[in-house]
Specification:
The complex is a heterodimer of chains A (317) and B (544). Chain A has five helices and 18 strands. Chain A has 317 residues and is an alpha+beta fold. Chain A folds into two domains: 39-126, no CATH class; 131-308, Jelly Rolls. In chain A, strands 5, 8, 9, 10, 11, 13, 16 and 18 form an eight-stranded antiparallel β-sheet that branches. Chain A has a six-stranded antiparallel β-sheet with strand order 7-6-12-17-14-15, with no helix packed on it. In chain A, strands 1-2-4-3 form a four-stranded mixed β-sheet. In chain A, a hairpin with an 8-residue loop joins strand 9 (175-178) and strand 10 (187-194). Chain A is elongated. The termini of chain A are far apart. With 544 residues, chain B is mainly α. Chain B folds into two domains: 9-382, no CATH class; 443-537, no CATH class. Chain B is 58% helix and 6% strand. Chain B contains 24 helices and seven strands. The radius of gyration of chain B is 24 Å and the shape is globular. Classes of the chains: A alpha+beta (317), B mainly alpha (544). The interface between A and B is large, with 67 and 67 residues.
């Protein structure tokens, strides 16, 4: 009898627990839905940012999945470089529109404001001054396919763009250097790469053609204290980790300034070239890509000539 | 649990009501869902099959020649024919009789019918071994799983295989007590084989159950032994039905069968995001099917399933630890347990290719629902709910309370079924925070048709991302999207570009930025505040 009563008591508790679980689900469902910020909140937050926006500002969303919402409100303010920064040069402030308590940075912001569920924060990050962005200057460069005995210039043309789609690699820009129409991947131009972490990187597509270099030459380049060079391979090709390394050689005034050997698995990476000792006059800067085996070497690089605004040098992430 | 109560007319009335009610619900909500990627392939294959069947009546001698068969059946050769045949029959019938309001429903109807029949089957099997309340609860619990509801709409194989797996298990179970069911078992298994390869694991489950049963019987000292007649029926009739319904196998049979098996054993890996990591290659974490079940099935139903398993733990013990008892000499719980666990374990194996979504272990869910029904009954009986007031309404009220969260979530999940996550995951935004797969198959474009039609009043073109051109064409034929808004193959030649948000589609987002020189979507389709599709607008005259 006592055991029966004990069992009944236990069953009643389980019954209560299940009923509570059902009620929890029923209540949690509308609470979750109600917690999402309204369109008006996003618009008010965006208007606040827009009113104070400067061209050297970057705007991000947190968590990252709200990015499309933030860009739908403020994307007209963002250049491709600011939306897909290859490095942090030229970014003086970062605005963040966040929800659900997410944050993209740990340090205290310079400014913050709440808009009914959308939190706006701003950080001042005066660092490297961008004095020359090689990616944005690509149309003025000279591109050649170099052979042992000769080199062939690649013309700058307006050409049909790639159709786009999953696993198709970076989009071809409308205008680009076309080196060999029979090898449609052998072009040079500014695009946006999905790197190994699927992060967006504004960069110059310079697929190596083989052991002989594909060469891009920039003239009249203003040099600051450093040149930040970064490079990476499209995530689909790099994640397999089976292909040959890509070598990017950087020449400044005919002196080799850096050699980057990019191995699969490194992701978006690079190095800084110290130019502080070079003469303060416009330079000729050359970038050459090679690979023993060029198959699936969807290589893209960026370079920024920078000057530090702070004593003691600049910063980079 | 009883061994088997004979069902009566009232039971079948309830089963039929469940079946018809669900069918009406599915047909009434189907037009909200654009055809998914895979549906568009199966529709294409079904049309080929329909043409071939028409050829049989017009020119039977040439229709059976290898060339004609290969022409009709080469496309989508990697999937058996049964459901594609039913899609084709339904479409042909629609063509002659105008049965459906639109063409997509003609293709989808057979799949919906299997979903509806599955409710009947769950109820019938449940009512055979437990009180009707538990059986009804089980059927409704299955019907109100958000992802089951989504997949139940489709001209695909995932709900049909859940039906045929459950039907085969039911026929096997019946055949253990009644040999008249033996040939029906072979037929059911054949149809399961002819629907999808999930069926391959059934003989293994049955064999383990059967050995368990025989050991029970040996230990009990009885002379009576369950017959193994079911096995030759499955082994002989199953492949016959598979081959008989699949003309592709009528020539070069062995090589094509091997190619079919090899295709699925060495299946390409779908990219799948799980807990913040994008998996391109196996192994997926073992936890995937279990966590995804927790995150997509109502927690109350899962808890009742666990309670049902706990309540029936004595019947799940190995034979050596169990006292044989007359009222359950078929070990129904062991069979259900096998059918529940095996699909989850197969997906959890590190060597299994990455298939992706919950649909791949959905064959487990009818049994999850049946155990939930058993758990519900156990609780009602142990807590003596009915005796509180001497009436039955507290039982029904409790059932309603337990089913309500699932029903509410299912209603809210439509038409974003694959993006839906339960409160345990934090809902849709919580799942986005956790880095869970947001969607696949491009079906969410159906939620954009009004916006697109308004944006392109004079027609235009759309780069449709993960929505296939076949799906787009079906939306046009269904009248959902104007015929002068065409699907475009090239981003830069399109007026609008869609980007379905899955993590590995990030590159497509970036492609659109470069194609249009802008990172600003003209519109972001959201579900519970989470981006589902971004739409970019071409700022210039599209490049033709």
């Amino acid at each position: 009898m006592a055991e029966a009563r004990r069992n009944l008591g236990l069953a009643a508790w389980v019954w209560l627990a299940i009923a509570a679980l059902a009620i929890f689900e029923l209540v949690a469902h509308p609470i979750i839905r109600a917690a999402r910020p309204s369109d008006e909140s996003w618009q008010a937050a965006a208007a606040f940012v827009r009113a104070q926006y400067q061209p050297s500002d970057r705007i991000v969303g947190a968590p990252a999945w709200v990015g499309p919402i933030v860009r739908s409100e403020l994307g007209d303010l963002l250049s491709l470089r600011m939306a897909a920064p290859p490095d942090t040069a030229g970014i003086d402030r970062v605005w963040e529109l966040s929800i659900r308590g997410a944050a993209s940075r740990d340090e205290p912001p310079t400014l913050e404001q709440e808009f009914d569920g959308v939190h706006v924060r701003m950080w001042s990050l005066p660092g490297d001054e961008l004095i020359y962005d090689f990616v944005e200057e690509i149309s003025g460069a000279k591109v050649e396919l170099v052979r042992a005995d000769r080199s062939k210039a690649c013309p700058w043309v307006a050409a049909r763009q790639a159709p786009g789609g999953l696993e198709r690699g970076p989009m071809t820009p409308r205008e680009r250097f076309v080196c060999d129409p029979r090898r449609p991947w052998l072009w040079v131009g500014a695009t946006v790469l999905a790197d190994l972490d699927l992060q967006q990187r504004r960069c110059i597509w310079q697929h190596p053609a083989g052991p002989d270099p594909v060469r891009v030459t920039f003239t009249d380049v203003p040099l600051g204290e450093r040149v930040l060079v970064r490079g990476g391979i499209d995530y689909q090709a790099e994640r397999r980790r089976v292909h040959a390394p890509v070598t990017l050689r950087v020449w400044i005034n005919d002196q080799m300034a850096a050699e980057l050997v990019h191995e699969d698995g490194e992701g978006w990476s690079g190095r800084e070239i110290d130019t502080s000792e070079l003469p303060r006059e416009p330079a000729i800067v050359r970038f050459e890509t090679t690979a023993d085996d060029p198959s699936s070497r969807l290589f893209c690089w960026s370079a920024s000539s920078v000057r530090s605004r702070l004593a003691g040098g600049g910063r980079d992430e | 649990m009883n061994d088997a109560r004979a069902l009566n007319g009232r039971d079948h009335l309830i089963g039929a009501a469940l079946c018809i009610g669900y069918l009406l619900l599915l047909t009434g909500t189907a037009s909200d869902l654009a055809m998914s990627r895979d549906e568009s392939f199966y529709v294409h294959a079904a049309k080929n099959a329909a043409n071939w069947m028409s050829q049989i009546s017009s020119d039977p001698s040439s229709a059976f020649e290898r060339e004609a068969i290969d022409r009709a059946w080469r496309y989508n050769w990697e999937h058996p024919a049964w459901m594609k045949l039913t899609f084709a029959w339904s479409w042909l019938a629609h063509g002659h009789l105008g049965l459906f309001p639109n063409e997509s429903l003609a293709f989808r109807f057979p799949g919906m019918l299997t979903a509806a029949l599955l409710l009947w089957l769950i109820y019938a099997w449940g009512a055979s071994v437990m009180r009707r309340e538990g059986a009804l609860f089980a059927a409704l619990a299955f019907a109100s799983m958000p992802r089951v509801f989504y997949h139940s709409h489709l001209a695909c194989f995932d709900i049909p295989i859940a039906f045929f797996v459950a039907l085969t298990a039911y026929a096997y179970w019946r055949s253990l007590a009644d040999r008249r069911w033996v040939p029906w078992l072979g037929l059911a298994f054949g149809l399961a084989l002819a629907t999808k390869h999930n069926s391959w694991i059934l003989p293994g489950i049955f064999l383990i159950h059967f050995l368990w049963l025989r050991r029970d019987q040996a230990l009990s000292g009885k002379n009576e032994r369950a017959s193994i007649a079911w096995l030759p029926s499955m082994v002989l009739l199953g492949p016959l039905v598979l081959i008989g319904t699949w003309p592709w196998l009528w020539h070069d049979t062995a090589r094509r069968l091997l190619a079919y098996a090899s295709f699925h054993l060495r299946h390409v890996h779908y990219t799948y995001e799980y807990l913040g990591i994008n998996y391109f290659e196996p192994p997926l974490p073992i936890s995937v099917p279990f966590v995804m079940t927790l995150f997509t099935v109502s927690l109350t139903v899962v808890a009742l399933c666990l309670l049902g398993l706990y309540d029936r733990r004595a019947a799940l013990r190995p034979p050596s630890l169990t006292k044989p008892h007359a009222e359950n000499n078929r070990r129904t719980e062991v069979l259900w347990g096998g059918c529940l666990l095996a699909p989850l374990l197969v997906i959890a194996l590190p060597s299994t290719p990455i298939f992706g979504g919950t649909k791949h272990w959905m064959t487990a869910y009818p049994f999850l629902a049946l155990f939930a029904g058993a758990g519900f009954l156990a609780l009602v009986e142990r807590a003596e709910i009915s005796s509180w007031m001497g009436r039955r309404w507290p039982t029904w009220a409790f059932a309603t309370l337990c089913l309500l969260p699932a029903a509410v979530e299912t209603a809210h999940s439509h038409p974003f079924g694959l993006s839906h996550y339960t409160p345990l995951a934090g809902g849709v935004p919580g799942a986005a925070d956790l880095g869970m797969n947001r969607q696949f198959w491009g079906f969410t474009s159906g939620s954009l048709v009004d916006w697109i039609a308004e944006r392109l009043p004079d027609g235009g073109s759309v780069w449709t991302c993960d929505t296939t051109h076949g799906s787009w064409a079906m939306m046009q034929r269904d009248g959902l999207i104007p015929s002068n808004i065409r699907a475009e193959a090239s981003m830069s030649a399109a007026d609008l570009v869609l980007v379905h948000h899955e993590t590995h589609f990030a590159e497509v987002d970036y492609q659109a930025w470069v194609a249009f020189g802008s990172v600003q979507p003209a519109y972001v389709l959201r579900y519970d505040g989470v981006p589902i599709i971004s739409v970019y607008e071409n700022p210039t005259e599209p490049e033709r």
